[in-house]
C-alpha cells in the first residue's frame, strides 16, 4: 500500500510521496508537518482537540532515517501544550508546537462571519485510499492536470491522502497537517510555477476534518522583497474548519515548473 513513510524500528524512512519537489534528497514540508503532527497527537488528552499547530522548517530534512522526539510543555484542565522535533545526526532539523483545547458549548449571541465560496468536486472523484490532487483555477473545472492550473488565477485544491506511515490509518489531524503545508503551493503557484519555499506553517482548527477528503482555498498572498505570507482556508464537504498560514522565502533560482509535474 502507498504511504509517505515506512517504519524501521523507532525510525521512519521516507518513501517517494514524502520526497520534496525542491530536491530529491530532501523530505517535503508536507511530510515533515504530517510526521510532527503524528507525534504530537499522542499527547492529546481525552476531551481535547488540536486547535493550533506551528511548524518551523529551518533546516532541510534529508531522506535519511528520521527520529521524532516530543515532550509535554504544560497539561492543564482546558489547555495543553506540547513540542516535537525531527532529529537527524543528533541535529534538530524541524520543530513544532501544538495547543490542545477542551471543547464546550458556544457562547450566546450572534457573531459576524463571512459567507465563503468553497467549491467541492463531485462525490467519488477521489479514492479513500489516496488519489492525485485535484486543482481548480478561478471558475475553471476541477482537474488533475497541473499544466492547466499554471496561471495567475486564484486556486483551490482537493486532496485524498494515503497513509502517512505504512500500516497505520492516517488520522484527521495528520491529514490537516499535511495539507497545511501545501498552502504554499495554493497561494504562491503562478504562471511560471512555484518560486517560494516555506520557512514555517501554522494551522488553526476549530474542528477536525470529517471524511477522507480535504480542500484548500487561497485567500491571500502578501509579498515584499522576497518574503511572502500566504493564507488559505481549510475545508471539507461540511464547510470550513480552519486556516493555514505560511511564511515563505523566495527560491526563484530553483523555481518549480509544475506544468511539467506528473502526480504519482
From TrEMBL:
Question: Acyl-CoA thioesterase-like C-terminal domain location, by residue?
Answer: 132-245
Q: What SUPFAM superfamilies does the entry give?
A: Thioesterase/thiol ester dehydrase-isomerase
Acyl-CoA thioesterase-like N-terminal HotDog domain mapped to chain residues: 27-100
What protein name does the entry list?
Thioesterase family protein
From what organism does this protein derive?
Rhodococcus globerulus
Amino acid at each position: 500500500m502507498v504511504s509517505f513513510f515506512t517504519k524501521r524500528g523507532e525510525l521512519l524512512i521516507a518513501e517517494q510521496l514524502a520526497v520534496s519537489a525542491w530536491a530529491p534528497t530532501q523530505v517535503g514540508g508536507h511530510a515533515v508537518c504530517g510526521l510532527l503532527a503524528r507525534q504530537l497527537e499522542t499527547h492529546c488528552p481525552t476531551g481535547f482537540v488540536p486547535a493550533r499547530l506551528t511548524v518551523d522548517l529551518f533546516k532541510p530534512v534529508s531522506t535519511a532515517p528520521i527520529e521524532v522526539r516530543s515532550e509535554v510543555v504544560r497539561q492543564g484542565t482546558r489547555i495543553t501544550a506540547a513540542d516535537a522535533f525531527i532529529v537527524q545526526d543528533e541535529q534538530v532539523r524541524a520543530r513544532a508546537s501544538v495547543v490542545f483545547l477542551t471543547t464546550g458549548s458556544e457562547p450566546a449571541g450572534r457573531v459576524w462571519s463571512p459567507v465563503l465560496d468553497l467549491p467541492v468536486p463531485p462525490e467519488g472523484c477521489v479514492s479513500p485510499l489516496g488519489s492525485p490532487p485535484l486543482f481548480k483555477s478561478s471558475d475553471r473545472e476541477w482537474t488533475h492536470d497541473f499544466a492547466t492550473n499554471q496561471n495567475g488565477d486564484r486556486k483551490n485544491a482537493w486532496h485524498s491522502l494515503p497513509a502517512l506511515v505504512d500500516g497505520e490509518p492516517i488520522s484527521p489531524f495528520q491529514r490537516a497537517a499535511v495539507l497545511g503545508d501545501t498552502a504554499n503551493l495554493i497561494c504562491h503557484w503562478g504562471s511560471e510555477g512555484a518560486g517560494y519555499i516555506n520557512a514555517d506553517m501554522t494551522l488553526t482548527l476549530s474542528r477536525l476534518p470529517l471524511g477522507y477528503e480535504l480542500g484548500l482555498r487561497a485567500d491571500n498572498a502578501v509579498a515584499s522583497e522576497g518574503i511572502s505570507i500566504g493564507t488559505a482556508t481549510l475545508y471539507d464537504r461540511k464547510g470550513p474548519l480552519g486556516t493555514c498560514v505560511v511564511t515563505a522565502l523566495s527560491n526563484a533560482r530553483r523555481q518549480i515548473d509544475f506544468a511539467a509535474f506528473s502526480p504519482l
